[in-house]
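Quick one, tokens below:
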């Protein structure tokens, strides 16, 4: 990860650590349940959770996995996640690490999870190559992220929305890109699904500590956008205010060749 992108991620997420621990959308839901079902089916004894954030995925996997390691780039996020896991009685090892330079030996893990984080990576392929390296033969990547849109205008609209809310956002990758990058890294998609996830506007913008002025500017941008852009994400508008919108989430299991 480039030093500038790394610094931006750390600056953005350090002060938001507690908000992510408390985020209901990260704490659970059908999307996490889906990843957990894949995880139970695979039965890996060692699992690595990359970009752990509030630690919810690592905590959930620790309930049925003998050894779980969680890494994140941002130290305050790691501290908050570790404290959360400790309160929950979970046994998870937390380490600071960059997804593009994982400090683990080849084949060290039976499964790797990465949930709602890849859109912050400056490039997807370097991280996937690291994941493939540390997975044992037949090991699985269980990943979830915002699904990129195939329509150029709609994709540009939502990237602008995301970046105004969170400057460390790079972009969401399309399904065809995920498949191609995984293949290039030596990983084969074995299962995948797409789910919808509703974003409540006040909670979504509030988690990133946006100023009232920045929030108002972002709302004006959304309201002024072509209707087809808002419709693509089911933006709900009430009384000239944004209430919510809906992301599409790509979930996939890809196995090491």
């Amino acid at each position: 990860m480039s030093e500038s992108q790394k610094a931006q991620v750390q600056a953005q997420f350090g002060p938001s650590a507690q908000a992510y621990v408390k985020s209901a959308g990260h704490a659970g839901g059908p999307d996490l349940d889906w990843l957990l079902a894949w995880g139970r089916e695979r039965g890996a004894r060692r699992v690595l959770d990359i970009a752990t954030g509030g630690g919810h995925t690592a905590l959930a996997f620790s309930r049925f996995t003998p050894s779980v390691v969680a890494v994140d780039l941002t130290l305050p996020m790691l501290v908050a996640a570790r404290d959360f896991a400790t309160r929950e009685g979970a046994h998870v090892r937390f380490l600071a690490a960059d997804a593009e330079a994982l400090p683990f030996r080849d084949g060290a893990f039976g499964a790797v999870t990465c949930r709602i984080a890849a859109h912050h990576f400056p490039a997807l392929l370097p991280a996937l190559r690291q994941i493939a390296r540390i997975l044992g033969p037949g090991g699985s990547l269980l990943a979830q992220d915002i699904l990129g849109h195939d329509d150029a205008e709609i994709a540009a609209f939502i990237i602008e929305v995301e970046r105004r809310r969170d400057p460390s956002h790079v972009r969401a990758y399309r399904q065809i890109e995920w498949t191609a990058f995984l293949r290039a890294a030596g990983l084969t998609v074995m299962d995948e699904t797409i789910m919808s996830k509703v974003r409540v506007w006040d909670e979504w913008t509030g988690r990133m500590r946006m100023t009232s002025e920045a929030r108002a500017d972002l709302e004006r941008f959304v309201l002024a956008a072509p209707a087809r852009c808002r419709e693509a994400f089911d933006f709900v508008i009430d009384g000239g205010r944004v209430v919510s919108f809906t992301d599409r989430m790509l979930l996939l299991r890809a196995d090491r060749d």
